[in-house]
Amino acid sequence: xxxxxxxxxxxxxxxxxxxxxxxxxxxxxxxxxxxxxxxxxxxxxxxxxxxxxxxxxxxxxxxxxxxxxxxxxxxxxxxxxxxxxxxxxxxxxxxxxxxxxxxxxxxxxxxxxxxxxxxxxxxxxxxxxxxxxxxxxxxxxxxxxxxxxxxxxxxxxxxxxxxxxxxxxxxxxxxxxxxxxxxxxxxxxxxxxxxxxxxxxxxxxxxxxxxxxxxxxxxxxxxxxxxxxxxxxxxxxxxxxxxxxxxxxxxxxxxxxxxxxxxxxxxxxxxxxxxxxxxxxxxxxxxxxxxxxxxxxxxxxxxxxxxxxxxxxxxxxxxxxxxxxxxxxxxxxxxxxxxxxxxxxxxxxxxxxxxxxxxxxxxxxxxxxxxxxxxxxxxxxxxxxxxxxxxxxxxxxxxxxxxxxxxxxxxxxx
Length: 414
Prior knowledge:
The protein is α/β, with parallel strands linked by helices and 414 residues long. It has three domains: 15-102, no CATH class; 107-239, NAD(P)-binding Rossmann-like Domain (Rossmann fold, 3-Layer(aba) Sandwich); 243-407, Rossmann fold. The chain has helices at residues 10-31, 47-60, 73-102, 123-135, 153-157, 193-206, 221-226, 231-234, 241-260, 274-286, 301-309, 330-339, 356-369, 384-392, 400-407; strands spanning 35-36, 68-69, 116-119, 141-146, 163-167, 185-188, 214-217, 237-239, 265-270, 291-298, 319-324, 348-351, 374-379, 396-399. The strands form three sheets. It has a six-stranded parallel sheet with strand order 5-4-3-6-7-8. It has a six-stranded parallel sheet with strand order 11-10-9-12-13-14, sandwiched between helices. Helix 1 (10-31) runs antiparallel to helix 3 and helix 2 (47-60) packs across helix 3. The chain is elongated, with a radius of gyration of 30 Å.
């Protein structure tokens, strides 16, 4: 049976431990026989009474007990420590609460000299922390999380040495109070594009030389491309997690497949959201001429294909077929098999809808019909179950988080 592991992290729990120590300094002397001048019966009282008096030290100190008398000298010294320390601890807690109300908690950061400052607390932040922990000192990291968006707060605090500060959205402007140029990097990884753009603009307004230190995520690629040429885009490093993941997938899986086949492949994209669109864009940029047909299945296939066309430069070197509908609809697949997969060559299937079970079911069904095809099934988060099932059926299981983490450049956090 595994033994429980208890870990003391002074950065997170020093207040609790100091309260316990001060309580012990007040309780143990009373147990050891130390008396007090104004309460002559305390040494003979039961343990609950002595504990009650020890807790009272945090509010009244020793004013209602009187001075220590009798008992061992070291025990009297401990009680004096509790007399002064317990009320001081209470006063500091009250003062900090008032200060917290008057000044938002960004003041808790203390210093950002040589620190990596991360804003945002989603899956993307966890991926960056994993890379930093593996290659660097996590004690150099400060994570600032919006109190309205912290689904992974416990996970963030589990990283030893990483300081996590929870703020409200408008409090990020208080970063201007710090010597920003002394920070090592700023990684703006909020799930809200407007927050990343706003903080990047704030940092540049404070110090225009910070540009090379700022890396921020943009989920809306169309909006990012419209802003090309603006200062906040030109001076900083921008990226999109789906673009990173798609680049990793295309280079490691799809291009290897294209090199191994003597014919030009047919690619079926089942699901054409942001990840599917990024895969097609990376295929056009890095594998043009190695595939001759692309079939897209999506409920909004035509509209999203038109959006993807905005980024195409020149003439496409492949034919494209769109099928509007759900990938659970057999009629959609029947039409696709009839119109696109007409030869003996088996295609490449990339299944990237937002439903993990649907992706997995579709992948297993396709494997029964195409024993030599490359079939890739995406899960939204890492899943041992999905990986195990996919291995049994010779299906490649991927998830965006792991692909992004594997493709994060060292220069962004080194």
